[in-house]
Design brief:
Blueprint (H helix, E strand, L loop, with lengths): L16 E8 L3 H8 L3 H18 L3 E6 L2 E8 L6
Antiparallel strand pairs: 1-3, 2-3
Length: 81
């Protein structure tokens, strides 16, 4: 596909092993009500801490979904499993 080709769902793939985790901000609705306009500052600070710690330990923060962060650690060597 990167060279402008078509998608072939029958093309052989490679198995990937990883661990997925969620970091969920507890009582997010209450925090939103109390902080109101400052809620984004709060979420961004938590995101900065979460991203830096996950990165430090070899993972990736994949996505932020409101009150939750999707985190992933990929195994590059099957001997690690």
């Amino acid at each position: 596909m990167t060279n402008g080709g078509d998608l072939d769902p029958m093309m052989p793939g490679a198995r990937t092993y990883c661990i997925f985790g969620f970091c969920i901000l507890d009582k997010f609705v209450e925090c939103t009500e109390v902080l109101q306009g400052d809620i984004m500052t709060y979420v961004n600070r938590v995101a900065e801490i979460t991203h830096s710690m996950v990165d430090r330990y070899g993972g990736s923060a994949n996505k932020n979904i409101g009150e939750a962060f999707l985190l992933v650690w990929k195994f590059h060597d099957t001997k690690e499993i």
